[in-house]
Design a protein that fits this description.
single chain; alpha+beta; Jelly Rolls; eight-stranded mixed β-sheet; four-stranded antiparallel β-sheet; binds ligand LYWKA7YB; binds 2-oxoglutaric acid; L-ascorbic acid binding
């Protein structure tokens, strides 16, 4: 059976969210997004790195940018990049196209419905109820392969609006260039050749998946999560949003809300870079909150190695005093293992809840 669309639920005007969307107490946001906004200037903030001089002829300028990118990747596993080189116009067009798709009636979007249960994740979807816990996220999404170009299945891309394909293709090309820059910076910081990480991650076979997250208004945002806490299975993730706050990073024991900075591109370090670097770079735990007044939309590009790429700590970052912290696994094994672990943890939590209720 197709899962309920969160958008349809939200539009039905319900005052209380269905039980499957109510997070366990320990997962609930302590303050809803609108309250968080007032205190967002307090405490530690996600690092902001201005990379305008990335290609500068001045070696000192380049060195300083590289130092800041590596520092943010080590300490936070996330950063907001300014002056990243992707034009404002392209970003506006990408966001207008994604919004135009989600502005279609749900029945139109259903024509692109994915079949997650059958392993077909490309298309329009909502999180499936996991048998173990039945917990759901307050979001619908659109997911498709963006790169490499020759592996795209254009039947899974939205046909409306007409501009979607051109603009998403152009954005993908820009992100692909940034992948090379960031992986080069991180490789150098580890003392390996600049091309090394990109090569291990598949080189020209490196994959990029686009996920447009659509978070409808939620009548009880303090009880729900748009995306539950997770680290990304990717190597890197690039994120844009429509300037509605919601992304939070777990840092030094607290959830920190990402500031909405016009023009900024958020970059997450994912599990694959954490593994390659033997934990020198951090795959940051993050989650997405929802909002009572505003629809939130975000655009995530996940950069992944091919499924069969074997990823383990690079030999240069391992020695007697730095033993490998991760076993080498193919990307497919990593993904399967993580999903299995999550399902198992949810099953255990649910069993414990049931036991508590019956005693
Ligand atoms: O290739 C990837 C890499 C990622 O890091 C992720 C991904 C795909 O998809 C996750 C996802 C997609 C669709 C869903 O319904 C989910 O519940 C998760 C994404 O969260 C991310 O980890
Ligand atoms: O919407 C966001 O800000 C976060 C999205 C996310 O973490 C994801 O799609 O995996």
């Amino acid at each position: 059976m197709a899962p309920a669309r969160v958008e349809s639920l939200a539009l039905s005007g319900l005052a209380a969210i269905p039980a499957e969307y109510v997070r366990p107490l320990e997962e609930r946001p302590t303050e809803c997004v609108l309250k968080v906004k007032r205190v967002e200037d307090e405490g530690p903030q996600i690092p902001v790195v201005d990379v305008a001089g990335w290609d500068s002829a001045d070696e000192e300028i380049k060195k300083e940018i590289r130092r800041q990118v590596a520092k943010a990747s080590r300490e936070w596993g996330v950063m907001q990049l300014l002056n990243h080189g992707i034009s404002e116009t392209l970003i506006e067009r990408l966001q207008a196209a994604g919004k135009a798709f989600f502005d279609l009636p749900v029945e139109e979007k259903e024509k692109y419905a994915n079949d997650h249960a059958a392993g077909k994740i490309a298309g329009y979807g909502s999180k499936l109820a996991n048998n173990a816990s039945g917990q759901l996220e307050w979001e619908d999404y659109y997911f498709h392969l963006l790169w490499p170009e020759q592996r795209r299945d254009m039947t899974t891309w939205p046909k409306h609006p007409q501009e979607y394909i051109d603009v998403t293709d152009a954005y993908g090309r820009e992100i692909r260039k940034l992948v090379t820059k960031i992986l080069g910076t991180l490789s150098s910081d580890l003392g390996v050749e600049e091309e090394r990480m990109e090569r291990v991650l598949g080189g020209e076979n490196l994959e990029m998946q686009l996920k447009i997250n659509y978070y409808p208004r939620c009548p009880q945002p303090e009880l729900a999560l748009g995306v539950e806490a997770h680290t990304d299975i990717s190597a890197l993730t690039f994120l844009l949003h429509n300037m509605v706050p919601g992304l939070q990073l777990f840092y030094e024991g607290k959830w920190v809300t990402a500031k909405c900075i016009p023009g900024a591109l958020i970059v997450h370090i994912g599990d694959q870079v954490e593994i390659l670097s033997n934990g020198k770079f951090t795959s940051g735990l993050h989650r997405g909150l929802v909002n009572k007044e505003k629809v939130r939309i975000s655009w995530a590009v996940f950069c992944d190695p091919p499924k069969d790429a074997l990823i383990g700590p690079m030999k240069e970052v391992v020695d007697e005093s730095n033993p490998p912290l991760f076993p080498a696994k193919t990307f497919k094994e990593h993904t399967d293992h993580k999903l299995f672990k999550k399902a198992q943890a949810q099953a255990e939590a649910q069993a414990a809840n049931k036991l508590n209720q019956s005693t």
